Each structure stands twice: as structure tokens, then as C-alpha cells.
């Protein structure tokens, strides 16, 4: 496969899987002119969250705020509740704390996490962790929408942007109708690349070279690597089926 130089590479939810990320980056071999972006959720669930943060921060890779980073920052606020703390711990926070030698998150990590943006505009591609509220202009949206939204965004029938593809993580792709573990999911104006690196049903960590439309994947459990054209690894998602599922959940 011929490749264009100065690649733009987007990496999905890592969730503390440092060794798998290293293997994936070795396969991608980003050069000095390449741009690497992370969609957030670097931390929680996997065993090496602190190392993942160090790798991304020390290489000056651009990273978005994910809902797991937001949960961590919330538990460190002055008005923390027991429920807030428990929600984070039960969502993988225990593993993040354990990844630090003295069980204390250093100031430089916290300051870096606090600096993360909620979206990045690359022109014809727009990156955010979870999606956007289709009923609100961007100026009225906050980290709550960008980091947490699911079905209201996934079920849109018209793209939010007429001229931009929104690339997201947050929702594991095999949870969409007709999508198998490891496959990417594409809806109306959006593309989800969170293939569930931590999940026992999947194990796939995904990077997308958006310049050359190439998918790079490492399986955390088997250490299998694969590269394939985007067209071979993506499944179109029917917004009607997502809307039906959303209605049943709210009934």
C-alpha cells in the first residue's frame, strides 16, 4: 500500500494498556512530520495508566479529554461526593491509582489532564471523545456533551457538520447493531474507532491513519497486529435501529 507523507493518525481509547499501545505505535512508526491524536480515555481499567499518560505527554501528542479523565478530575475537586468517588473507582479508577508507585497522582499529570481540550478541528475532520448534542450549537455545549453523549448523537439522520467527519471513541463499536468486535462503526457524519481494547469480547486497540484511510490494530490479549484499508474494516450503522434501542431504554 502506498502512503502519503505527513500522516494524521487518530488513536482510540487506550484505557491503560501501555504495552499494547507501544506495539501499535511501533507498527505505525510515526515520523517527525506525522501528527498523532488521542481521543481520550487514556486511563482506567488497564494496568498502566500512568505510563500511558507519560508516553502521550512526553511525546507532545495531542490528546482530548475523555469521560474517564473527567471523572478523575471530578474526584479531586473540593466538593467531591462519595457517589462521585465510587463511580470513578468502579469504572476502573482502582487500576489507575495502582499504576502509580506511591498510589498518588503527581501534580504534573493532573495539570496536563486539566489542560486537555474537548475537541480538535482538523478542517474536514473533527475530533471529540463521545460526540456532540445534535440539538445544540457548539457554543452551547460543554464537556458533558463532548465526553458523555451516546444514542442522541449516534441516531442522527443528518450529519451535524455538512463538511466535516466527526471521529469519536467512548462507545465500543460492537455495541452497535451489526458490528463485530474489531470493526469500526460509521453513522451519519461520524466514525467510531473505540474497538474495546479492555473488553474481553474484543481486545482490539485501533489507530486510524486518516490521511491514507488505513486501520492499524493490536489485540491486547493475543498480541496480534493487523493493518487493513478503512473500507474493509468499517460497518455502516443504521440510525433507525439506534433510535429504536434508545426508545426502548427510555421506556
Summary keywords:
alpha/beta; 6-stranded mixed sheet
Report strand %.
Answer: 15-25%
Give the overall silhouette.
globular
Question: Radius of gyration, rounded?
Answer: 17 Å
Helical content band: 25-40%
Low-confidence stretches: none
- What's the story with the biggest beta sheet? 6 strands, mixed
Overall SS class:
alpha/beta
Across the major sheet, the strand order is 3-2-1-9-10-11
Order of helices and strands: EHEHEHHHEEHHEEEEEEHEH
Q: How many strands in all?
A: 12
Explain what this protein looks like in three dimensions.
With 251 residues, this protein is of the alpha/beta class. It contains nine helices and twelve strands. The chain has helices at 18-28, 49-58, 67-75, 82-98, 107-114, 143-148, 151-154, 230-233, 239-250, and strands at 8-11, 35-38, 62-63, 119-121, 125-128, 165-168, 184-186, 190-192, 204-209, 214-219, 225-229, 234-236. The strands form two sheets. A six-stranded mixed beta sheet has the order 3-2-1-9-10-11. The longest helix has 17 residues, at 82-98. The radius of gyration is 17 Å and the shape is globular. The mean pLDDT is 93.
Record the SSE blueprint.
Elements: E1 8-11, H1 18-28, E2 35-38, H2 49-58, E3 62-63, H3 67-75, H4 82-98, H5 107-114, E4 119-121, E5 125-128, H6 143-148, H7 151-154, E6 165-168, E7 184-186, E8 190-192, E9 204-209, E10 214-219, E11 225-229, H8 230-233, E12 234-236, H9 239-250
Amino acid at each position: 500500500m502506498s502512503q502519503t507523507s505527513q500522516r494524521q493518525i487518530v488513536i482510540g481509547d487506550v484505557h491503560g494498556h501501555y504495552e499494547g499501545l507501544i506495539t501499535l505505535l511501533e507498527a505505525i512508526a510515526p515520523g517527525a512530520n506525522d501528527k498523532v491524536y488521542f481521543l481520550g480515555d487514556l486511563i482506567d481499567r488497564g494496568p498502566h495508566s500512568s505510563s500511558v499518560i507519560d508516553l502521550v505527554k512526553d511525546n507532545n501528542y495531542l490528546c482530548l479529554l475523555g469521560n474517564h479523565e473527567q471523572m478523575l478530575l471530578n474526584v479531586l475537586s473540593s466538593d467531591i461526593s462519595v457517589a462521585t468517588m465510587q463511580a470513578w473507582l468502579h469504572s476502573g479508577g482502582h487500576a489507575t491509582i495502582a499504576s502509580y508507585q506511591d498510589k498518588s497522582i503527581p501534580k504534573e499529570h493532573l495539570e496536563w489532564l486539566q489542560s486537555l481540550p474537548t475537541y480538535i478541528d482538523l478542517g474536514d475532520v473533527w475530533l471529540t471523545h463521545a460526540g456532540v448534542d445534535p440539538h445544540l450549537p457548539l457554543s452551547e455545549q460543554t464537556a458533558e456533551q463532548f465526553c458523555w453523549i451516546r444514542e442522541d448523537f449516534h441516531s442522527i439522520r443528518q450529519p451535524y457538520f455538512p463538511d466535516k467527519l466527526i471521529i469519536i471513541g467512548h462507545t465500543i463499536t460492537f455495541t452497535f447493531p451489526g458490528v463485530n468486535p474489531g470493526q469500526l462503526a460509521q453513522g451519519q457524519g461520524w466514525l467510531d474507532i473505540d474497538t474495546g481494547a479492555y473488553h474481553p469480547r474484543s481486545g482490539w486497540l485501533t489507530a486510524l491513519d486518516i490521511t491514507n484511510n488505513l486501520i492499524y490494530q493490536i489485540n491486547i490479549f493475543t498480541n496480534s497486529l493487523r493493518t487493513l484499508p478503512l473500507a474493509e474494516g468499517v460497518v455502516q450503522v443504521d440510525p433507525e435501529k439506534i433510535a429504536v434501542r434508545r426508545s426502548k431504554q427510555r421506556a
